[in-house]
Amino acid sequence: MAVFSRGFGGNRTPSDPRIPPGQYLTEDFPVLSAGPTPHVDLADWTLDISDVDGHRNTLSWDQLMDLPSEEFTADLHCVTKWTKLGTMWRGVPVETLLGGTQSDAEYAMIHSYGGYTTNLPIDDLLLGNAWVVFEYDGAALAPVHGGPARLLVPHLYLWKSAKWINGIELRRQDKLGFWEGFGYHAYGDPWREQRYEGD
Amino acid sequence: MKATDDIPQAEQIADTPPGILTARPIQWRRAKLHDSRMETRTARTLVFDVPGWTEHRAGQHVDIKLTAENGYTAQRSYSIASASAPGRLEITVQAISDGEVSPYLVETMAPGDELELRGPIGGWFQWTEQLTEPILLIGGGSGIVPLMAMLRERIRVDSNAPFRLLYVARTPDHIFYANELYSIGQSNSDVIIDRLYSRAGLPDDPRTPGRLGLEDIPRPTFGETGSTRVYVCGPSGFVEGATQLLQSGGHQPTAIRTERFGPT
Hints:
The structure holds 2 protein chains of 2 kinds.
Chain A: E1 24-25, E2 46-50, E3 56-60, H1 61-66, E4 70-77, E5 82-93, H2 94-97, E6 107-112, E7 117-121, H3 123-126, E8 131-136, E9 139-140, E10 150-152, E11 165-171, H4 178-181
Parallel strand pairs in A: 1-5, 2-11
Antiparallel strand pairs in A: 2-3, 4-5, 5-8, 6-7, 6-11, 8-9, 8-10
Chain B: E1 29-38, E2 43-49, E3 61-67, E4 73-79, E5 88-94, H1 102-108, E6 114-121, E7 135-140, H2 144-156, E8 163-169, H3 178-187, E9 191-197, E10 222-223, E11 226-227, E12 229-235, H4 236-248, E13 256-261
């Protein structure tokens, strides 16, 4: 049974099927993080991809730039309740990066400069819904928003879109990442409002 | 709703780090406004009675849900301002002029009115009495709120950990908890409270008003109980500037925890 708040009549967020439950629309691009913004030189930047069979592949920035990338539009949903529609990005689809990986990996742990981690099922990275992005709104991605490159997985809450990505670790078993270990939901589907463990 | 009120908010498993919850959903709880006070002309502390609330860690937050008569709901997160106490918690809300929720909380909500909240949420940006190393708190504007919870908790548990607060606000009129901060600083020799003004200060201030600079940042200390642990909270631009200064001033990035509010 709902608890009504006397005198509350706010209705600024329009009813829009693109906005998941419990979210409000923002025109801003809020920044949230757990610690200081890492600053990484492109000359030093690497993306480490490791598979369950021990195989390891390290990409340099130049190698990332050599891969086919695409421009796309995405809606962003942050667990702190804001939603930003129609953001423009350029990036390399994750399935291009993971190549013809034939391993029996079911999960991935994403690693970032600065120590951040987040976990995802492998299908959420491989089925056309995830990119390693390096441009936002037509310009190089700013460090404060995860530059030089971040993961973008728009169908999940934005904490899964790890900023400052530097590694994709394929795994047979799931292991909780940074926020997940502090009680945030292991999967994080905004449409089922999976914010916290048990939701 | 009644039956869930007796279930503890969260269970702590002995060996797990603080803040880890067991695998049960965090329940929405009914909360009633008990009392309130204005901290500034536009910021208000709200004191809620929350049946079934057992405890929280300083630095954690709650999710608030308002429901209008037509069924429309809005949710926002607010840092808990008070030290841990059963059945009660406080938040301090800064009214944002074109906000949807904050004007209601600051201008409309009256004692006896209700909302729903759930929590406590978060386990990274928190201070507990197990931490004995020196603590540096840096707050910008309404970023003072979770840091105030940490200060209040330190006092509640009678900790000896050295605490230093750098609180940056535009003018003295923008300072929350002014009297309490003064009395805490006066009565605790290991707690240093510095109020820094970015636009305009008091006539006898030795420091010229302005944004945080390298000279304002204390160097890290390396003592018996460990090296300085830093918590920074405020608008994103403030946090960005402060963390750069901290690193220039010798603090390791891994010793710095941040929480950001606001639009960009």
